Amino acid sequence: MSGKRDEPGRRRELRRDAVDNRDRVLEAAAVAVRREGTAVPMATIAADAGVGVGTVYRHFPSRDALLSALTHRSFQLVLETARRAAALDGPPIEGIRFFLERTIAHGTDLVLPMHGGPVINDQATVALRDEAHRTLGSILERGKGDGSIRIEVTRADIVTFGALLAQGLPHVPDWKSTARRHADIYLAGLLNRTGQPDQTAEPATD
Q: pTM of the entire structure?
């Protein structure tokens, strides 16, 4: 009888362990792919995660499945950050500052096509990417509308610069501090110094 009462709790514990193992594999894989490229051996990822290679294949039956999951996870982080940035009170430039700061902080977790990661191959991930871009675009449009951000800035500019900041240069010590300094310089360049909406220029397209 005791065994029967304990069985649901045991199943929950096993499920929690499986989720934890999957998360560890994804975290290790993100670092390994950024370090060695998409051809990094699955055994290397397993060793970095502290699990057996069989555990990796249990969650991700192929390399393509693992790479696809990494890309999806990356765009989930990007979209979450963009939404939090868009929800902030205050000037739109501060929303962009927040997005860039959190992108720098997420650095090693992001495996994106711009970083040499796999090309997106499923509609769910495409939808995440597109929603993240639209959300960033809404911040820019507010800034252009109130005259605080230059009219020619596009959401592609923000996305590209964020990807550059997230990809640390290998021989730069304390990359995150350097990236934050570059972000400050970049943000200053986005400001419309006239303080008025530009009625003459047409917005650049992405």
A: 0.80
